[in-house]
Predict the structure.
Amino acid sequence: MVLAAKQALSAKIGFSNPLSRRNPSSPLQRSPLAASFPSTDLRKRTVLAVSKPLHLSPMRAKPPARREAYEADKSEPQPIDDDAAETKSEAAKKLKIGIYFATWWALNVVFNIYNKKVLNAYPYPWLTSTLSLAAGSLMMLISWAVGIVETPKTDFDFWKTLFPVAVAHTIGHVAATVSMSKVAVSFTHIIKSGEPAFSVLVSRFLLGETFPTSVYLSLIPIIGGCALSALTELNFNMTGFMGAMISNLAFVFRNIFSKKGMKGKSVSGMNYYACLSMLSLLILTPFAIAVEGPQMWIDGWQKALSHVGPQFVGWVAAQSVFYHLYNQVSYMSLDQISPLTFSVGNTMKRISVIVSSIIIFRTPVQPVNALGAAIAILGTFLYSQAKL
C-alpha cells in the first residue's frame, strides 16, 4: 500500500522513477509542471545538440604552401625582369661594338702595312688615295648590282648633306697618305693620336658642347706626348708632320658631319660610306691629275715594277681593298656610337698600328720618342675614362 501511494504521488508532481525509465516498454509522460524546471530542459537540449551530425563548410582546405608555389611555377608564367632584359641588351650591344672595333683595327693594320710598302716603291700619294676610293666604289657598285647589299634610296637632299662630309673625308685621306709617304707609319699615327684634342676643341668652340674638367686635363698628356715624340723623331719631316695634323682636323669634321648626316636617314653605315667614297672620288680625281699627272704615274709605275716585281700590283690592290673595308666597318660602328667615342676608338687603334709597323719595317725608335708615344697613348686612355 505504501509503495503504491508513493508511485501515485510521483506521477502527479511530474517525476518518473529512474527504474521505470530503464524499461523501454513503459511510455515516458511529461507533466505540465516540467516547464518550471529549466535544468531538465537544458540537459535535454545539450544532449540533442551533441547528437546532431556535424556539417562542414563547403570550402576546401588549402594545400601546403610549398606545393602551392610549385604548382604556380608550373602553370603561371613568371614575370619578365625588365632590368635583367635591359642589362642583357646593353651587354649584347657592347659586344657588337667590340667586334666592330676589333675588326676595324685589324683591317687598318693590314692597310697601313701595304700602303707603306706601295708608297716606298711608288711615292705618289694623290694617285694612291684615288685608287683606294676607286676600288671601294667599284666593290660597292658590284655588291648593289648582284644584290649582296641593298641599293640605298637617296635623293638630292642626301647628296647635298653628304657633300661637306666628302670634302672633309677627301682632305683627311690625302693628307694622311702624304704624311705616310714622307715619314714612318709609326710617327704619322703618333701625331694622329692627338685627334681627341681636335675633337674636343672643335666640339667646344664650334658646336657649343661642354665637357667635364677631367676631359680637358686628359688632353695635356695627349698633346705633350705627341709634341715630345715629334721633337725626338729621327726622320722628322715638316710635310709629313703637317699632313698628319691636317688629317686630324679633317677627320674630326668628317665624323661630326657624318653623324649629323646619318640622323633621320634610311641609309645604313655601309651604304653611307659607299656613297661617301663615290662622291670623294669625284672630288679627288681632278686634283690628283692636276698635282701629279698621268705622265708621272706611268713613269713611276714602270720603276716600281722593275724594282719590286709583279707583286707590286698585289700590294696596290691590297692597300686599296683594305682601305675600303676598314673604313666601311668603322662607319658601321659609327651607327652605334657618338663622334667622340669614334675618335677614341680611332686613337686606340693606333697602338696596334704603331707597334706592328715598328716591328715589320724595323723603324728605329729612340727611348725619348717611345716615351712620348706612351704618354700620348696614356692621355688617350685617361680621356676615354673621363668620357665614361
